[in-house]
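tool=predict chain=A
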Amino acid sequence: FPVTIKWSQSTGWQQITSAYFAKPGDKLAVNTSAGVVLVTLPSSPNQFDEIVFADFGGTWGTNNLIIQRNGSLIENLAQDLTCDTTWPIQFTLRYQGSTWRVYEA
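tool=predict ok
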């Protein structure tokens, strides 16, 4: 994999390959090489909770990561977030009191 990515150079990352219930503070290296992966956000987030996502193998464009909002808004929208491109390789979701916001790493 020719691209240097931040998650590979730090600790605390968890690789996931199947459905997962995210927790505040998670750093998820999501591997979708075998198929679509669903990640469910916390149901009662606190302001400034963060979850970091990284495309483990550059396969989100082929097999999507779908982030299920679990009752909260994402970018003020009442819909799940489908990651269907391999860029950005890493991003952070931060809860801003009324919605999850996406921040590119």
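The two ends are 19 Å apart (CA to CA). The chain has a mean pLDDT of 91.
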